[in-house]
Q: What sequence folds into this?
């Protein structure tokens, strides 16, 4: 019976610049901390974030959407913070859209 030669698998390791964990050099994200390691992936994610921001800005121009969004955000905040007394988030009519992201 012929034995086939075993193939050697070569793996190049590098360190994540954020968490210093040893990682494969061909991954797009650090499996430990999630940092984007591939420039093409980082650019793609940034383009998606810009588009999401644009869509959110359009949505927040609709008063009905804005009111519902703030109500849901209030419900989420209250349910995720049971040990803290209920905190009133800013009213959508008095605050800019970006203010909702600064309450946490």
A:
């Amino acid at each position: 019976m012929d034995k086939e030669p075993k193939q050697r698998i070569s793996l190049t390791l590098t360190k994540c610049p954020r968490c210093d964990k040893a990682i494969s050099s061909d991954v797009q994200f650090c499996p430990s901390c999630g940092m984007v390691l591939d420039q093409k992936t980082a650019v793609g994610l940034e383009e998606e974030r810009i588009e999401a921001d644009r869509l959110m800005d359009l949505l927040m121009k609709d008063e009905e959407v804005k009111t519902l969004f703030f109500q849901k955000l209030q419900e989420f905040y209250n349910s995720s913070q049971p040990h803290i007394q209920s905190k009133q988030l800013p009213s959508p009519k008095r605050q800019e859209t970006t203010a909702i992201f600064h309450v946490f």
Remarks:
- The longest helix spans residues 39-59.
- The radius of gyration is 23 Å.
- The mean pLDDT is 81.
